[in-house]
Amino acid sequence: MKKLQAIRGMNDLLPADSSIWQYLESTVADVVQGYGYREIRFPILEPTELFKRSIGEVTDIVEKEMYTFDDRNGDSVTMRPEGTASCVRTCEQHGLLYNQTQRLWYQGPMFRYERPQKGRLRQFHQIGIETFGMTGPDIDAELLLMTARLWRELGIADAVTLQLNTLGSSEARARYKAALVDYLAARKDQLDEDSQRRLDSNPLRILDSKDAGTQALLNDAPALHDHLDDESREHFEQLKAMLDAAGIRYEVNQRLVRGLDYYSKTVFEWVTDKLGAQGTVCAGGRYDGLVEQLGGKPTPAVGFAMGVERLILMLQELDVIPAGLNQNVDVYVAAMGGAQSGVQAQAFAVAERIRDALPHLRVMSHCGGGNFKKQMKKADASGADVAVIIGEDEAAKGQASLKYLREDRPQQTLTIEQLLAALQD
User: Fold this and answer.
1) How far apart are CA 257 and CA 206, in angstroms?
2) In what side-by-side order are the strands of the sheet with 38-39?
3) Per-position DSSP letters for 139-202, written without gaps between them
4) What is the pTM assigned to this prediction?
5) pLDDT in tens, 93-132
6) Other residues' Cβ atoms within 10 Å of the Cβ of residue 93
């Protein structure tokens, strides 16, 4: 019989790696909750129409990459390819947006059918931040200060660079789009194949083409900043002033865009040269038009998403993962006595006493029987610093033996109170 394998591009997470994920996720949670952000959760399956309306039907994501199927009622449903639209749908459905401000974060799997490669999978994981109801550049600045703090906490601040741009209002962007299309249409035969296709469907995305010939052609193209409205220009200047005052370094990249029409004003990416071609680890911007596009009242919004797999690769590449993350046991409790002696029950009781008194310790009880040598081998393999041994003599006297597994110290026989004191030290 053929062995079953995971679906290509949908990876298993093994115990040896899960501790790194837990470290990253807990660090993110500590940072964002320190800024007053609250977690929100929403389903993996959504109505397909949600993503067609938000992302747009003429995009690679909707046309080629979404996992879409009809359920048993004949309704078209899609496994979420990104989190922003789902977050907006959730907030609008439950009345969290109108005349309110929200600072929210989420984490979880997203799904896109594309060619799996390093840092890019068909089931990938994102951590996202979404804020609603705030129009000024101050909330844009807060998001960037928060991500800068996260990079410092993770030890990767020197390996990432903030790129910043403004797209202006929807009206200003429409004027610019028309000028850009006029310029490029006259030179269509010089564009790469992807850019030729985007000229009709999503021309702003041509600005971040990776094709060298297209980039050279763009050197003489109309500039977005020449078409900005005064309000957007002022918003951008205030944002830069706030970042300067906070000591956050950035580069203004006038070719940095978000190709979807609901984006406006601020857009940004944190990029790195440590991951080869996949250089973006966090990206976001202001999307003041999306809530209205999905049927709600006009609502200012700004947010970002970061790829967990890419951040894990960064931590590994830079060797900044804290030591000892894979150690999952501090104390190993072993029982030396026959099945009918009651020693095993006594050992379990002592293990529970340790957990009650010292909840910060990770305590593993030996199960499965075996002689002293076998149990000590298991204790050593667990990574524990000490073994607590209960034999028939110890059980009868209400004592335990403390054996040091990583230090050259003599074994001690202690009362349970003395044992707890010794483990506390």
Assistant:
1) 9
2) 38-39, 102-111, 123-132, 301-307, 280-286, 266-271, 161-166, 251-252
3) HHHHHHHHHHHHHHHHT-GGG-EEEEEE---HHHHHHHHHHHHHHHHTTGGGS-HHHHHHHHH-
4) 0.89
5) 999 999 999 999 999 999 999 887 766 799 999 999 999 9
6) 11
